[in-house]
Amino acid sequence: MGNEHAFLCPLTKFNQFGLCSQLLWKGGNGMKSNKFWASVSKPMAAVTLTLITILLLAPGAWAASKYKVIYKFTGGTDGGSPMWGVTLDKAGNLYGTTDQGGAYGTGTVFKLTKRADGSWTYSVLYTFTGSNDGGTPYAGVTFDASGNLYGVTQWGGDDSSGVVFQLVPNSGTWTENVIYSFPAGSHGSISDQVGVTIDSAGVLYGTAENGGTYGLGVAYKLTPNSDGSWTYGVLHDFAGGSDGSYPEEGNLVFDKSGNLYGTTIQGGAGSGGVIFELVPQPGGSWKEKVLFSFGSNGQDTPMGPLIFDRTGHIFGTAVNGGEGGYGTVFELMARSRGPMDGTHALQLLWQPGWSPPCCWGDLQQNWKSLRHNLLRRGS
Fold this sequence. Notes:
This protein is 8% helix and 36% strand. By secondary structure, the protein is mainly β.
């Protein structure tokens, strides 16, 4: 790949928390340029974005920052095993899910309310029964413009294949509505680490890792109707060939043109998964385009959410491949400037085995250049 970029701090005591903010450096004979990014374990991705925002807005506070536990789950009625991370509202409160615990042992949706003195109050918004209302929500929750929350469960529902749910606030309480129950079969089933993405019209988009015509997963949308019902539609039915199979990790993400992007963990030309783009077509259909296939290039199994920078480059992680087979962080870019409608090149940002100086001290010492490059580059 030439001068690859490398991540600082692959192994430190801070990584046990999945919160080690890390420095990117350009490999070769020495330091070429500093770029800041944050990489964490999947369940903490949303928390990392929050930390980046804090760093940008208050760089002077970085040196005094400390890791702090704001809530410890007991595994009882409060829930346990929060897999995905948290979502912020405008007031700075946090929302998330647990896939265990709760009154019925099948998970909860929770809220952490920030108090004026800096402490947090934990509350359970909804406890899943594991029956028709769903159970075991691995992914997080998403807000709409009205303050309703949306999410997906892995189990429960009419056919025990998971549901898409809505939580509506009602004067301090929350009411759950199941807006779609996945049937076993062609409509997809069992969304693993995937929630929903919402557009400006309130339409929900997501993926299901199983089901579909070929049993290899689908990308879908749920459109709200004026009578309160929702209409389910399949955007793409994964066939397991060059188009990929099993889209089970990370929410779909929009670009500025309204195209959707995601990953599959298998399939593609190299059988190691793909990065795909879904482009809306006249008449309401969607066309899938594979931007990159993993497997034949020493990397495979892309997992976790994708993220865009302002230039249209895509960043993500692959759990296998790289030196020693322990995974990589990658950057995907169009080979020519302009819309991403041509061929694409994948650049390696980090793989285990690269071990430049680490980690917090370097980040503090290089803060000015890091902040400058991040603001210039965008995230």
